[in-house]
Write a structure and sequence with these properties.
The protein is of the alpha/beta class. The protein has 16 helices and 15 strands. Bound molecules: pyridoxal-5'-phosphate (PLP). Keywords: DNA-binding, Pyridoxal phosphate, Transcription, Transcription regulation.
């Protein structure tokens, strides 16, 4: 078996003992420092002798000595390994980090990601697909083909920061055909997920102290992307059907607004869909007051009760709507592929930003996605999971009603992968969060999504990643925590 690495051993030129003793001593020191740990393989005697420029017999003697002392075990065919029980004899103590010499960290304060579910544990997310349904075989095959194609097409070096031409073409076609946009590939920039899209958009359109409007409950990482770019954030009220446009208009009358961030497809976190009449009025307000609308259409494909509504950006003539989409919900968040559709001068600038922070995206992943789109496999996958998630939505609603019906209220979302669950106004969700009793599930709360004002207690609970049994367990655990709180 090939070893991933050979340790670089430093053997003292002089010192006590023979050369083989000093080699053995060097290895023991590396074990005691924790650089070599139980099960690590040592270089073959020939290789080590060559590296150290000593006779092979000397290394054999050193290994024999280590084996006699119990530091290593030798398998005739596989080689020499640090003994599995070595931790008993040589406590693994990593060296302490050096004292910090650069003082306090000075950059902008950046928050960690919102929810960070522990790997492999069942939990409430904020609306992500079930990892077990991700078409891994199709993805693996698409990657194999993409790696070969990328090599043939000489795309494995440095390339266009806006993304590979083939994916920009595919996305442009998809947006024009299915969402009524009017784009060419020059209107498209591929990003690492829509999170990077929001960051580079913010840095491209906002100057320090420009006002950017968010709904009073919104997607916090988007707020952070804009504040890092220097924006001053203001909250617009949120009505039962999305942003309160009377309030937005009032803000625009007294403040010069540079941009408005929205998720009109399914409002984050409350899941409501912005009505067609409100969409028309919003576009009229953008024209009247000259603000940019950043439309984050993060889970466009999951509309259950009616056809997906066209985005605000569909048929946009004004060039004031910047559209953001993602493959995270239809394929996998781990692929990190999102995109921006916008006028070419903004796309160019966004590409420059990508050049500054990441240089470019990942051509193999991008070509694999092209293959999944163009072969129709993505559409087939979406159809399959759409039906499964629709069923799960019903099951989740029933379990919520049965277990929490007397403690909380909710509307069944017409689309998206999460429910918005409202608790009694006097229920102290913050206290529950702080106390987090044994077994209480983690979830995204209204307080975490609030811009400014205090939020009524509510939670965003993703349902698509849980099967019926897992939903039941999680909702029961939530009920126990709420009853105990
Ligand atoms: C509203 C919203 N925008 C953007 C994202 C980011 O998605 P990604 O960066 O994985 O494309 C998410 C992820 O959950 C989201 O909920």
């Amino acid at each position: 078996m090939l070893r991933p690495w050979n340790p670089n051993l430093i053997v003292r030129a002089e010192g006590r003992g023979s050369l083989s003793v000093r080699i053995a001593q060097a290895i023991i020191e590396e074990i005691q420092r924790g650089r070599l740990t139980a099960g690590d393989s040592l270089p073959g005697t020939r290789d080590l002798a060559k590296d150290l420029e000593v006779n092979r017999k000397t290394v054999v003697q050193a290994y024999d000595e280590l084996a006699a002392q119990g530091w290593v075990t030798t398998d005739q065919r596989r080689g020499t390994f640090i003994a599995r029980n070595i931790r008993d004899g040589a406590p693994h103590k990593p060296e302490p980090e050096p004292a910090q010499t650069f003082g306090e960290l000075r950059g902008s304060a950046v928050k960690p990601p919102l929810l960070w579910p522990r790997q492999g544990k069942v939990s409430f997310d904020d609306g992500v697909p079930d990892q077990r349904l991700i078409p891994t075989m199709a993805i693996a095959q698409a990657y194999a083909g993409a790696a070969r194609a990328a090599s043939r097409q000489r795309l494995l070096g440095y390339g266009d920061p806006r993304g590979t031409e083939a994916l920009r073409q595919s996305i442009s076609k998809m947006l024009n055909m299915t969402r009524g946009l009017n784009t060419t590939p020059d209107n498209i920039c591929v990003t690492r997920g829509s999170q990077m899209a929001l960051y580079v958009i913010a840095h491209s359109i906002v100057a320090k102290d420009d006002t950017v409007i968010f709904e009073e409950l919104t997607y916090p990482p988007a707020v952070q992307a804009f504040t890092l770019a220097g924006a001053k954030v203001q909250a617009a009220k949120l009505g039962p059907e999305g942003i309160d446009l009377n309030h937005l208009e009032a803000i625009c009358r007294r403040t010069r607004v540079r941009a408005v961030y929205l998720t009109p497809g399914h409002q984050f976190p409350t899941t409501v869909v912005l009505r067609p009449s409100a969409r028309l009025r919003l576009r009229a307000l953008a024209a009247q007051f000259g603000f940019i609308v950043v439309e984050d259409d993060y889970d466009h494909e999951f509309q259950f009760d009616h056809q997906p509504m066209f985005p605000l950006a569909s048929n946009d003539q004004s060039g004031q709507i910047v559209y953001v989409g993602s493959f995270s919900k239809v394929l996998s968040p781990s692929l990190r592929v999102g995109y921006v559709a916008a006028p070419t001068h903004l796309i160019q600038q966004i590409g420059n930003w990508i050049g500054a922070i990441d240089r470019q995206g990942d051509p193999i992943t991008e070509l694999a996605i092209v293959e999944l789109i163009e072969s129709g496999q993505l559409r087939r996958h979406i159809k399959r999971v759409h039906a499964i998630f629709d069923k799960r939505r019903t099951t989740f609603a029933e379990a919520l009603q049965d277990e929490l019906g007397d403690l909380a209220s909710f509307d069944i979302p017409t689309g998206g992968l999460a429910f918005w669950v409202r608790f009694a106004e006097d229920f102290d969700l913050g206290k529950l969060e702080q106390r987090r009793p044994q077994g209480a599930p983690q979830f995204l709360t209204s307080a975490q999504c609030a811009v400014g004002a205090k939020a009524k207690p509510a939670a965003r609970l993703g349902f698509a990643s849980l099967d019926a049994h897992e939903m039941q367990t999680m909702i029961e655990r939530l009920r126990d925590a709420v009853e105990g709180g």
